[in-house]
């Protein structure tokens, strides 16, 4: 990673470093930060001669060579000093809340509009709503592109930025064009490297957009999870949130195996903010508040919670696991208290 002396390199300087690294089979990927742009060397950056030549340039401050399978997402990377702000919240400075329906019902858009207002009133900063849905059963409702209009209309009505899951390149294009701020990669696609690359390429230098990357469904290692994020960051956009959401069930009763406890371990390895999804983790509305609070106790920066004004009228996961807005409001208030308590506590 090349750290320049100035906030960004001139076109001539960029051309010069690109030519140098090309001699060694590498490429340059600029990563635009809030204050300065850094230049990742993509490829095998171990060649001493290449490093010496780059270090010899008068506009280069230093070269960071982190030995890590995920050199951009690594805690020690220069990107660790960046701060991501979404829905008016700077991650790490205030508990960040994403809430909304699992699935938007295109036949009943009013439920979604009401949910959008209710979650905003409860304290959510970003509205979620599933437009396209990965479903285990191919004969169940798979989502509908028409719901994208409903999602954006709810965003206009409430002023909240929105999140939706994308499962293929066409969804990525449609969601970005429509104005979706946060693209979600779901647990089923968490290791779909061609989709991760396509998202990385599409968000590229669009630093007003971010990606919520869920942990894959199997008990994947932390390095595997963070490396999946590296696929996206490698195209220049470091606005990535890591989302533990439970892994394959090992407990009778919970939908998945709650994994909020990996939060401190992730934080030792990466600078990325951790936003835990308790809804898919436990899979039942009555267990969601406890799981959400546990996540905050473990140090989560945010929560992603399914909520619906009338869960029994919802579709997808909503009848089972969406919490009512009154529950969400109480839960957010408690989670904020715990977050503050944790910040002021001496340990952890
Ligand atoms: C969802 O967010 O509704 C969803 C399907 O998530 P996951 O990929 O975690 O199952
Ligand atoms: Mn869901």
List keywords for this structure.
binds manganese (II) ion, two-stranded antiparallel ribbon, globular, binds phosphoenolpyruvate, 348 residues, single chain, alpha/beta
Task: Give an account of the 3D structure.
- With 348 residues, the chain is α/β, with parallel strands linked by helices.
- Helix content is 36%, strand content 18%.
- The chain has 12 helices and 14 strands.
- Strand 2 and strand 3 form a beta hairpin.
- Helix 5 packs parallel to helix 6 (193-203), helix 6 (193-203) runs parallel beside helix 7 (222-233) and helix 10 runs parallel beside helix 12 (325-344).
- The structure holds phosphoenolpyruvate and manganese (II) ion.
List the helices and strands and how they pair.
Layout: E1 2-4, H1 11-22, E2 27-32, E3 37-42, H2 48-55, E4 60-63, E5 85-86, E6 89-90, E7 96-103, H3 109-122, E8 126-130, H4 147-158, E9 162-165, H5 169-178, E10 182-185, H6 193-203, E11 210-214, H7 222-233, E12 240-243, H8 263-269, E13 273-276, H9 278-282, H10 288-297, E14 302-306, H11 318-321, H12 325-344
Parallel strand pairs: 7-8, 7-14, 8-9, 9-10, 10-11, 11-12, 12-13, 13-14
Antiparallel strand pairs: 1-4, 2-3, 5-6
Helix pairs in contact: 3-4, 3-12, 5-6, 6-7, 10-12
The structure holds phosphoenolpyruvate and manganese (II) ion (MN).
Residues 102, 280, 306, 316-317 line the site of manganese (II) ion (MN).
């Amino acid at each position: 990673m090349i750290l320049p002396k100035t906030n960004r390199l001139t076109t001539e300087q960029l051309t010069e470093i690109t030519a140098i690294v090309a001699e060694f089979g590498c490429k340059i990927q600029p990563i635009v930060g809030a204050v300065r742009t850094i230049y990742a060397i993509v490829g095998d950056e171990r060649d001493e001669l290449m490093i010496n030549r780059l270090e010899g340039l008068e506009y280069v401050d230093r070269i960071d060579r982190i030995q890590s399978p995920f050199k951009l997402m690594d805690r020690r990377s220069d990107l660790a000093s960046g701060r991501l702000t979404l829905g008016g919240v700077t991650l790490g400075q205030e508990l960040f809340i994403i809430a909304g329906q699992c699935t938007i019902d295109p036949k009943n858009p009013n439920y979604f509009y009401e949910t959008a207002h209710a979650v905003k009133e409860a304290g959510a900063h970003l509205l979620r709503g599933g437009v396209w849905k990965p479903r285990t059963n191919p004969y169940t409702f798979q989502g509908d592109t028409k719901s994208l209009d409903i999602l954006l209309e709810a965003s206009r009505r409430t002023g909240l930025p929105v999140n939706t899951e994308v499962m293929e390149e066409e969804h990525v294009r449609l969601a970005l064009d429509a104005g979706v701020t946060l693209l979600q990669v779901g647990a089923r696609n968490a290791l779909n490297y061609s989709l991760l690359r396509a998202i990385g390429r599409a968000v590229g230098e669009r630093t007003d957009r971010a990606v919520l990357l869920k942990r894959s469904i199997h008990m994947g290692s932390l390095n595997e999870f963070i490396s999946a994020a590296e696929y996206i960051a490698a195209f220049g956009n470091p606005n990535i949130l890591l989302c533990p959401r439970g892994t394959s069930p090992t407990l009778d009763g919970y939908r998945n195996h709650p994994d909020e406890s990996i939060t401190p371990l992730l934080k030792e390895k990466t600078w990325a903010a951790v936003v835990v999804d308790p809804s898919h983790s436990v899979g039942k509305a009555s267990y969601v508040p406890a799981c959400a609070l546990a996540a905050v106790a473990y140090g989560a920066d945010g929560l992603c919670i399914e909520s619906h004004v009338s869960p029994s009228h919802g579709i997808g996961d909503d009848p089972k696991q969406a919490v009512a807005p009154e529950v969400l409001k109480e839960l957010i208030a408690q989670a904020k208290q715990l977050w503050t308590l944790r910040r002021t506590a001496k340990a952890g």
